[in-house]
Structure prediction request, 316 residues.
Amino acid sequence: MSTQADPAHLLRQAGLRVTRPRLEVLAAVHRHPHAVTDEICAAARERLGTLSHQAVYDVLRALADAKLVRRIQPSGSVARYEARVGDNHHHLVCRVCGGIEDVDCAVGERPCLTASEDHGYLIDEAEVVFWGVCPGCLALDSASAVPWAPPATTHPSP
Amino acid sequence: MSTQADPAHLLRQAGLRVTRPRLEVLAAVHRHPHAVTDEICAAARERLGTLSHQAVYDVLRALADAKLVRRIQPSGSVARYEARVGDNHHHLVCRVCGGIEDVDCAVGERPCLTASEDHGYLIDEAEVVFWGVCPGCLALDSASAVPWAPPATTHPSP
DNA sequence: TCTCTAGTCTTGACTCATTCAAGATAACCT
DNA sequence: AGGTTATCTTGAATGAGTCAAGACTAGAGA
Prediction:
């Protein structure tokens, strides 16, 4: 019980069999925070040679259920995964390029916020997404008029 | 300039042409808060007789761009729309049945929260989603063991 | 170490929300 | 009223994600 962070141990602790696809997918999520399924799939394939699309979906679901990865899905984006779990941090999303940054949660433990009315719900998490424009897109935006049309939502009007 | 809240006026103010599909879709969003596109489509068709799927998507996008409706999309759900705009309220989502409730924002104006680090982003909104289990599902959950399997995420373990 | 078996992975087809494209229609300006 | 152009209809396409059936293999017991 020396290496608590050993990926194989983590899998076993979660009651999951240790397989190369699972180890590589987990490693890929660590290497590529906020990556989409396809990117994780590609990264794992680089190591494994071959890995089915379906296996990646299955593994990611198993890892997410086991809380070894966290699934996030900002509006308008497909599912993304990150390996930073347990600290209930939040996210900063660029409306223009879709870039994502982690933001530490001041409170840390979930739920970090209390709803003004709980409507009788048993609340266990407050998920916060900060929307804005990243420095890179801000620079482009002030340089040229409209570099590329923003995806769905428009910029905040002055 | 008597009825500022007149739907036709609102459309015109936003630079949008006033059409029956737009009026009916807007009314449908008012009548069915948090409805998905298909439900809005069905509701509007009840009044109009016929309305294409594509028109509903176009109209909803136009209305959302004009800030006459707000598009929300909790993880794992398809896009939903609501007519309550401008007050930057938040949402309470049931992990079991997917039910959604509005939660007033104590601050009101956007962004209601400040990120601990902004990474240079120009932040204009803090979107908060409270996740939990609604009273109805809580009751079912304590009555029987597992009524239906929760969609993706599992309940908080004891 | 060998064998068995349930849990995993592969393959391939499928669903369904959403988008694209082209032509018909109708709202608004003059 | 007439022309312009945004909007709507129709029909097909995209793409993330899922389902299903069979092959494979990690891990437990002999």
Observations:
- Residues 145-158 of chain B have pLDDT under 50 and may be disordered.
- The CA atoms of residues 1 and 134 of chain B lie 43 Å apart.
- Chain B has two domains: 1-85, 86-158.
